[in-house]
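[INFO] parsing input record for SHOCT domain-containing protein
[DEBUG] input buffer:
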Amino acid sequence: MMGGGWGGMFFGLIFWVLIIVGIIWLISWIAREGGMRRELRGGSSATEILKERYAKGEINKQEFEEKMKDLSK
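[DEBUG] output buffer:
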């Protein structure tokens, strides 16, 4: 005889709860990791930041050109 009774149903429920929690955790982990990669989501790249600094007058033309040359290496 099987004799599983309520025990099988209880462990089946626990199994599916763990599966759902695992999927939610995986989705949230992927979302957090994606948040760390700003460039992939349209964040500022080094050249964009450098252009902004030059436009604001924080650096002069010579510094701008030197830094652009360094970035292109």
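[INFO] The two ends are 74 Å apart (CA to CA).
[INFO] shutting down worker
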